[in-house]
Write a structure and sequence with these properties.
alpha+beta, 5-stranded antiparallel sheet, 422 residues, globular, serine-type peptidase activity, 4 domains, 6-stranded mixed sheet, Tail specific protease domain-containing protein, Pdz3 Domain, 2-enoyl-CoA Hydratase, Chain A, domain 1
């Protein structure tokens, strides 16, 4: 598909089918990206990578991480990571994590990206592309993928300019349980995309988790995965025995059943009609019938289904003292777990506000040749009624501003160990 047709269809989708249009339309500014691609076409340097960059910048400007635009892997394109992450505060920008780029160390100060100071980049960027106006919540990964050079000052005072390398995508970290001084237990469930893996982790460490005097649950860098993976963790956040329905609380949503949304959902479901598993086939038939019946009805208020029967009991387990560590990169299902914990009131929330991704649901996928565009078609009633979490996240009980010291020291964990419940 030609880029102009792709953009026209994408922007039409945003206006008519995207659940967040009413809330986000003031951020809709396609002109810079239409101009970017038009100039590239005129200069005969149009490429799939340029389209990927332009649309992703547009999505970033809308500030909804439920919007995504991806290019399929091919011989000419491989999704990649820079092998490190950065974070900015009033002190400056620093490398706060290293996964594969061993020329860098946590704590290195970033002086320039492509010879330009980070502060100047922020000042000059059109249509805020970093996801936030707060330095410590800025999202730099996409910008770094477009950069070629990074100038840093190492801990020994030496300055160095590096040509950035492309590494394979970082794999999600595995979950773990760690015994800390005084019998405190640290639980990091890992990426919540595998319910069985989370359940195995809990089962393997059940005696330790149930018998410890203090439990620290770390969700600071958790991208979420699926709601079913939350179930093994709920006993340690529930303040009493409760049903899944009681714990998940308000599931009211408004879904935009446009003809286009329903057609796209049916198209996505059709391959499952011939799945080997008969239950999958039956579910696909049921959902296709649902979207066929709802096609063209527009906005409909309904209740989002739970991942298990609402009356399923969740028994309260674990110690009286539970601390939940949160930060900007806690999102989606992990953020939902924080929301449940906040509502239950048993766990003490420590750290920084979560990402703020819970207001939009029901992702729809659209294929444009080698591209895939994903957008949500539902919005929570909490958001519609003015008390959603979009862009602001869920605030902790103890808000601790980020500083560069956290690049080399786990200050939040130390603070959690020192916290008094009395």
């Amino acid at each position: 598909m030609e880029s102009n047709k792709l953009l026209n269809d994408l922007f039409l989708t945003m206006r008519n089918d995207y659940a967040g249009w009413t809330a986000k339309q003031a951020r809709h500014n396609p002109s810079p990206f239409v101009t970017m691609l038009g100039q590239a076409y005129y200069d005969r340097r149009m490429s799939s990578l340029l389209v990927l960059q332009a649309v992703n910048q547009y999505c970033a400007g809308m500030r909804d991480r439920n919007l995504s635009f991806a290019l399929a892997e091919s011989e000419s394109y491989h999704p990649f990571s820079r092998g490190f992450t950065v974070r900015r505060s009033l002190e400056g920008m620093f490398v706060d994590g290293v996964t594969q780029e061993l020329r860098l160390q946590p704590g290195d100060q970033v002086l320039a990206i492509n010879r330009t100071a980070p502060e100047r980049i922020v000042k000059n960027l059109p249509n805020p592309l970093l996801g936030s106006d707060e330095p410590e919540r800025e999202q730099w990964n996409g910008y770094l993928k477009m950069a070629k050079h990074l100038t840093v000052r190492h801990s020994d005072g030496q300055e160095e300019t590096l040509e950035l390398a492309a590494y394979p995508l970082d794999r999600p970290a595995a979950g773990f349980v760690q015994l800390l001084p005084g019998g405190t237990v640290l639980l990091n469930p890992g990426c919540l995309d595998d319910p069985d893996a989370v359940q195995r982790l809990i089962d393997k460490n059940r005696q330790l988790l149930d018998g410890c005097p203090r439990l620290i649950l770390d969700l600071r860098r958790n991208p979420g995965g699926c709601e079913e993976a939350l179930l093994p963790l709920l006993p340690y956040l529930a303040h009493r025995d409760a049903t899944i329905g009681e714990l998940f609380g308000d599931r009211r949503i408004r879904t935009n059943y446009t003809k286009m949304n329903c057609s796209r959902m049916i198209h996505t479901l059709r391959p499952y009609l011939t799945a080997a598993d008969s239950e999958v086939q039956a579910m696909a038939r049921e959902l296709i019938a649902h979207y066929t019946a709802m096609s063209g009805q527009g906005w409909v208020e309904e209740t989002e289904e739970l991942c298990a029967p609402a009356q399923t009991m969740i028994p309260r387990r674990g110690p009286e003292e539970v601390i939940l560590l949160t930060d900007t990169w806690c999102e989606k299902e992990a953020e939902l777990l924080v929301q449940i914990a906040h509502k239950e009131g048993r766990a003490f929330l420590l750290g920084r506000p979560t990402m703020g991704t819970l207001d939009y649901r029901t992702p729809v996928q659209v294929r444009y040749d080698e591209f895939t565009f994903t957008y949500p078609m539902s919005r929570t009633m909490a958001s519609c009624e003015g008390h959603g979490v979009d862009e602001i996240g869920i605030s902790p009980d103890d808000l601790v501003p980020w500083t560069s010291l956290e690049c080399t020291q786990d200050l939040l964990l130390v603070r959690a160990m020192q916290h008094s419940f009395s």
